[in-house]
Amino acid sequence: MAKDNSTTYDHVIKYTGLFGGVQGITMLVSLIRNKLVAILLGPEGIGLINIFNNALKLIAHSTNFGLDFSAVKHMAEIAESDNRKEIEHFACVIRTWSLAVGLFGMFICMAFSNILCYWTFKNYDNATYFIILAPAVLFLAISGGELAILKGTKSLKTVAASSILASVSTLLICIPIYYYIGLKGVVWSLLLTNAAVALIQISFTRRIVPWHVSIFDKETFNSGTPMLKLGIGYIIAGIFGQGADYIIRVLILRYGGLDDVGFYNSGYIMAVSYAQLVFIAIESDYFPRLSAAKDEIKRQNDTVNQQTEVCAILISPFLVLFVTVLPLIVVILFSAEFANAVPIATCASFYMFFKALTLPAAYLALAHGDSKMYMITELIYDVLIAIIIPLAFIQWGLMGAGFALSTAGLIDAVMIHTIYRQRYHFMFSFRLAYFYVIQFCLLSTVVWASFQSNLYMRYTIDAIAVIISACLSLRILIKETTFLKRIHNS
C-alpha cells in the first residue's frame, strides 16, 4: 500500500492501542468492582444499581444540551489556531455552560423525583433517593465539560490518565459503602463516585487551561450558543437513547424481576461494554480527524473506511474468543449465580460485530454538524430497541433479548450506510469484504456451537474458529501497518 495510507493505519492503531490500553486498565478495575459488587449485592444489587444509574443518565442527557460532545468539535477548531487567549476563553465558555446546565438538571431531578420513582418502581416509596441523586447530575455535567476541553485540545494522554484515576477512585469509594451498608448504599455510592470523578477531571484540566467561569456574563453565554445547534440534536437523541435503555430495564423489571435486570445488565456489560474498548479511541482521536476531513469526499471516505477496517480487524477475534470462553468469564467476572447472563451475552455478540461496521460512519452527521440527521437516525434506532428487546424478552426470555439487540445492530448498520451514502456521498469500501464475511461466519459458528450439548464437538469447533479468526486479523495487520515490524526489529 502507499506510504501515506500505511502511516494513517499506523496512526489509527496507535491511538486505538493507547486508549484501548487505558480502557484495558479501566476495564480491569471495573472487573474487580463488578466482581465484588456481585459477591456483596448479587443480581438484585446489580439490577438496582443499573436502574438508578440509567435514571440518572436519562436526566443528565435530557438537560445537558449535548455540550459534553458538541464542545469537543468547537474546541478542536479553536485549538487549531493555537491562540492561547481564545482557547482559555472558550474553555471558560464550556465550563460556564456546563455549570449552568448541570444546575438545571439537578433542579429537574429534584422536581420530578416522584414521577421518576413511580415510573421505575410503581410506587413513591423511593422518591427521596432521586432527590439525593440530584447533585450527581451536576457532577456529570461538570465532568463532561472538563473532558470536552481535554479532548478538544488533543490532550489525549491526560484524558487517559484521568480516566484511569477516575476508575480507581470509583472502586475505592463504592466497595466499602456496599460492604457496610449493602443495598441502601447504592444511591450514596453513585453520588460520591460522580463527585469524585468531577473533582479529578477538574484537577487534570486546570493544569492545561486555568479554571474559570463567568456564570453572570451575558457575552460568555452568547459565545457558547453555536454549540447548541449541534447539541440540540444530540440532546434529543440522548434523551431517546438513554430513555430507551431506561424503558428496556423498567419493562424487564415489570415482566421479570430485579434479578432479570441484573442478568440483562451483566450480559450487556460483557457483550457490549467490555468489547467497546476497541472503539474507545473513536471519540478522542477519530472524531477530530473526521471533522477536519469532512469537506473533501475522498479524504472523508478514506478516514471512515480505515477506521472501520481497524475496528473490524481488532474486534472480530475478540468476539469469537469471547463466545468460546463466556461460561468461564461469567464465573470469573461475577459468580456462578450469574449463569443466566450467558445466553444474552452470547446472542448479543453479533451486535458488536455490526457496530464495528457502523460506528465510524455514524459519526459523519456529527462531523458535518448535521444535528437533524443524527437525531433522526438515533431516534429510529432507539424506538426500535425500546420495542423489540422487551417484546423478545417477554416472548423468549434473556436469549431472545440478546438476539433482538443483535438484530437491531444489523438494521442500524443497513440504515446508516444507506442514508449516509445519499446525504454525505459516503462509499463503504468492500476491499475487506472477504474478511467481514469469513469473520461473521466464524462468529456464527461459535454461537451455534455454544448451544450444543456435545462439549467435545463444541470446544473443537471453537478452538479452530479462534485460531482462524486470530490468524486472519494478524495477517491483515502485518500487511497494512508497520508497527508490528517495528516491534519485531526492536
Structural class: mainly alpha
Q: End-to-end distance, in Å?
A: 23 Å
Sheet of most strands: none
Mean pLDDT: 84
Total of helices: 19
Rg, please?
A: 22 Å
Q: H/E order of the elements?
A: HHHHHHHHHHHHHHHHHHH
Indicate the topology.
Blueprint: H1 3-63, H2 67-79, H3 84-111, H4 113-121, H5 127-152, H6 156-181, H7 186-205, H8 218-223, H9 225-255, H10 258-273, H11 281-293, H12 297-333, H13 342-347, H14 349-362, H15 364-367, H16 371-424, H17 433-449, H18 455-480, H19 483-489
Summarize this structure briefly.
84% of the residues lie in helices and 0% in strands. The protein is mostly helical.
What does this structure look like?
The protein has 490 residues and is mainly alpha-helical. It has a domain at 258-490. Helices cover 84% and strands 0% of the residues. It contains 19 helices and no strands. Helix 14 packs across helix 16. The longest helix has 61 residues, at 3-63. It is globular, with a radius of gyration of 22 Å. Residues 1-7 have low confidence and may be disordered.
Key descriptive features of the protein:
mainly alpha, disordered N terminus, 490 residues, 19 helices, single chain
